[in-house]
């Protein structure tokens, strides 16, 4: 696939870009050019440019960790397909908004230059929770992190926060104009959270944070679309539709959601013309997504992996695990929420379970189970705190947290065999497990993420009982016995 091959798509069941990609000029930078961005924000930008006719919103995509995406997309002129897979149906759409690809490890100065360019009016990020290099217990930037420390020492920055900090200083000095930075990762108040990290970085670097951030907006946003890894059979299916080999292909479910606070510092793409929802406050949508979709996702991953389910679809169709997921929603997640405007939370929960059961998506339990230390706080522990503050037990959250603790203590790979723990705090968590004695392991692990919740002895006792029931009787045995008394 390339610009030269686009005419070959005529007459095929493929949706080509609604514009000539050669006419697009850059107006955005995206940090974290993985599959999710290409199936979500980039695709919405395609639609926005086609709908508005404003082709000044091309994307410079930055691969933060490797040159793999660069090697996929550069020979294809930035073009790639999105194979939308529902039950019994597949559709292929070609994305044309990504016009330049950079590999941060090899081109750090080019990344800063792109961010600092006056033409870059919007920056978006999907670097995953661990990419912000923060302490999950405090939410503060880990200045002792080796990569953050290297950025602070003056090297061309390679962390997302370092890249933003350096570029914003350069923009302020050059009078480059307003810029909006949109965090699209699953973190509470992700806009103010990111602004806080950038401020901390600038302060630690001895820069004038107030000047650098003076005309920069950080609206919060909520993104949702299941985007699993691409398999060779997916490429074969896409080639059957397009007649072209696509190394940059990504796979996605039909559902797509983007809620963005309407707090832009300047111009923006017409995302709202193609389905994005602009709102004054993203927080209610964010809490609903984290506590309903993401929390259930984690529960299914940890229980499913332990029960031998390789995919989320396998896990949610296991009757015992499905009942546990429904109990989490019914007893803890939904009662902890105030419904966002226009959202029926019970229907939303049912929709989530239906989406997870989409067997056309090979979303693996091992992928979802990774980086738990970065995910549990906003997904599960926040619900436990809310329920406990209301005088409720939060026993189903305790089950999910216990399943994570067992995964930390005895990690399994996708083949069900022992495997290294895939977590940025793996060394610290292993040390906690090794130093724990008897029934203290759950309390000690929770304390790493939420010291205050770890002091709730009644709740921790339930989580601890779940932990030992899962370890002793297995997932199905523990779930059959019910909530430990």
What would your notes on this structure say?
With 485 residues, the chain is an alpha/beta fold. The protein has 20 helices and 13 strands. The strands form three sheets. It has a six-stranded parallel beta sheet, sandwiched between helices. Strands 1-5-4-11 form a four-stranded mixed beta sheet, sandwiched between helices. Strands 10-12-13 form a three-stranded mixed beta sheet, covered by helices on one side. Strand 4 and strand 5 form a beta hairpin. The termini are far apart. The model has no long low-confidence stretch (mean pLDDT 95).
The biggest sheet, with number of strands, parallel, antiparallel or mixed sense and barrel status, is: 6 strands, parallel
Helix and strand content put the structural class at alpha/beta
- The residue-averaged pLDDT reads 95
Alpha-carbon distance between the termini? 59 Å
- Low-confidence segments, given as residue ranges, are none
Helix content: 40-55%
The gyration radius over C-alpha positions equals 22 Å
Strand residue content: 5-15%
Specify the number of helices.
Answer: 20
Adjacency order of strands in the biggest sheet: 6-3-2-7-8-9
Shape by Cα distribution: globular
Count of distinct strands: 13
């Amino acid at each position: 696939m390339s610009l030269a091959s686009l005419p070959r798509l005529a007459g095929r069941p493929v949706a080509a870009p609604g514009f000539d990609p050669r006419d697009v000029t850059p107006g955005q930078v995206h940090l974290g050019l993985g599959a999710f961005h290409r199936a979500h924000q980039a695709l919405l930008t395609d639609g926005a440019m086609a709908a508005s006719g404003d082709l000044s919103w091309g994307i410079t995509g930055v691969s933060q960790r490797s040159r793999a995406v660069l090697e996929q997309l550069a020979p294809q002129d930035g073009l790639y397909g999105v194979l939308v897979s529902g039950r019994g149906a597949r559709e292929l759409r070609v994305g044309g908004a990504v016009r330049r690809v950079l590999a941060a490890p090899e081109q750090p100065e080019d990344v800063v230059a792109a961010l600092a360019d006056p033409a870059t009016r919007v920056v978006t990020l999907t670097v995953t929770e661990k990419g912000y290099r923060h302490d999950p217990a405090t939410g503060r930037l880990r200045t002792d992190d080796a990569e953050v420390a290297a950025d602070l020492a003056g090297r061309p920055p390679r962390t997302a926060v370092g890249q933003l900090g350096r570029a914003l200083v350069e923009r302020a000095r050059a009078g480059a104009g307003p810029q909006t930075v949109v965090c699209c990762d699953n973190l509470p108040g992700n806009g103010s959270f990111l602004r806080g990290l950038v401020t901390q970085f600038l302060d630690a670097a001895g820069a004038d944070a107030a000047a650098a951030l003076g005309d920069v907006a950080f609206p919060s946003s909520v993104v949702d679309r299941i985007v699993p890894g691409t398999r060779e059979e997916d490429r074969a299916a896409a080639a059957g539709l397009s007649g072209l080999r696509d190394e940059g292909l990504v796979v996605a479910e039909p559902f797509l959601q983007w809620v963005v606070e309407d707090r832009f510092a300047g111009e923006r793409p017409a995302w709202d013309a193609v389905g994005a929802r602009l709102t004054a406050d993203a927080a209610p949508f964010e809490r609903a997504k984290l506590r309903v979709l993401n929390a259930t996702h984690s529960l299914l991953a940890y229980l499913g992996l332990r029960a031998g389910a390789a995919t989320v679809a396998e896990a949610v169709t296991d009757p015992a695990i499905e009942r546990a997921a429904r109990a989490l929603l019914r007893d803890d997640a939904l009662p902890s929420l105030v419904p966002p405007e226009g959202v029926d939370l019970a229907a939303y929960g049912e929709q989530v379970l239906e989406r997870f059961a989409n067997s056309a998506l090979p979303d693996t339990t091992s992928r979802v189970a990774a980086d738990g230390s970065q995910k549990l706080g906003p997904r599960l522990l926040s619900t436990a705190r809310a329920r406990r503050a209301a005088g409720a037990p939060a026993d189903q959250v305790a089950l999910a947290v216990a399943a994570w603790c067992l995964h930390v203590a005895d990690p399994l790979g996708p083949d069900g065999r022992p495997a290294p723990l895939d977590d940025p705090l793996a060394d610290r968590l292993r040390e906690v497990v090794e130093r724990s004695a008897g029934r203290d392991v759950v309390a000690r692990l929770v304390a790493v993420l939420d010291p205050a919740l770890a002091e709730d002895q009644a709740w921790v006792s339930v989580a601890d009982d779940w932990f030992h029931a899962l370890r002793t009787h297995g997932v199905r045995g523990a779930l059959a016995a019910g909530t430990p008394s």
